[in-house]
Design brief:
4 helices; mainly alpha; 0% strand
């Protein structure tokens, strides 16, 4: 008797069981992250505003096109084909 591969039903049950325990951990983590963000809300808002300002300035100055050209030189051709597929 050899070892049988798991059937489709058992894979679904294991996936659901893992997902439910993972979701509980995710809720605890998101609660801690939310608490930290609420305590530091002023700093978070300033950092977000500065990020948006810098990104906007970079787009206006053409830094996004420069970055795209640099990334296209080092990306594998398969990734480039995948991003232009749709």
């Amino acid at each position: 008797m050899g070892v049988r591969p798991p059937s489709g039903d058992s894979i679904e049950v294991v996936t659901l069981a893992y997902g439910s325990s993972s979701a509980d951990r995710g809720r605890r983590l998101s609660g801690r992250v939310r608490g930290w963000v609420m305590v530091h809300m002023d700093r978070v808002k300033r950092c977000f505003g500065a990020s948006v300002l810098l990104l906007g300035l970079g787009i206006l100055l053409g830094a996004d096109k420069w970055l795209e050209a640099q990334l296209l030189q080092v990306m594998p051709q398969g990734w480039i084909n995948l991003t232009t597929l749709f």
